[in-house]
Write a structure and sequence with these properties.
The chain has about 130 residues and is mainly beta. It has no helices and 11 strands. It has strands at about 5, 10, 20-25, 35-40, 45-50, 60, 70-75, 80-85, 90-100, 115, 120-125.
């Protein structure tokens, strides 16, 4: 049975950090690219980062570039999103999902390319 569990969310002040985890079971993570997505209140889900199979390439949306870092540990079947210098506009529910490939740097990370299975984890950035 395929399971995806996002964790690590919480409430932080602006400028703070969080590390999100994406743990999968029922399939091998190393067969897929992984994407992280964010859905802010009242807005559509947007792709913010992805990492290719084997981790050779990554892609970030401009709003998180230089602040967020995506990584993966295939031995643990887990992917991560390190989020630093958090801003109130980073608030939302964060999801991870698998895909056959990560969009090239500078290309949009499309929700339609990904298979969503998890419930997401809430991130709230507020003073």
């Amino acid at each position: 049975q395929v399971q995806v569990v996002e964790s690590g969310g919480g409430s932080v002040q602006p400028g703070g950090s969080l590390r999100l985890s994406c743990s999968v079971s029922g399939f091998r993570l190393d067969y897929y690219a992984i994407g992280w997505f964010r859905q802010a209140p009242g807005k559509e889900r947007e792709g913010i980062s992805c990492i290719s199979r084997l981790g050779g390439s990554t892609n970030y949306v401009d709003s998180v570039k230089g602040r967020f870092t995506i990584s993966r540990d295939d031995a643990k079947n887990t992917a991560y999103l390190q989020m630093n210098s958090l801003k109130p506009e980073d608030t939302g529910v964060y999801y991870c999902a698998a895909s056959l490939k990560c969009a090239a740097e500078g290309s949009p990370i499309l929700t339609s390319d990904y298979d969503f299975r998890g419930q997401g984890t809430q991130v709230t950035v507020s003073s």
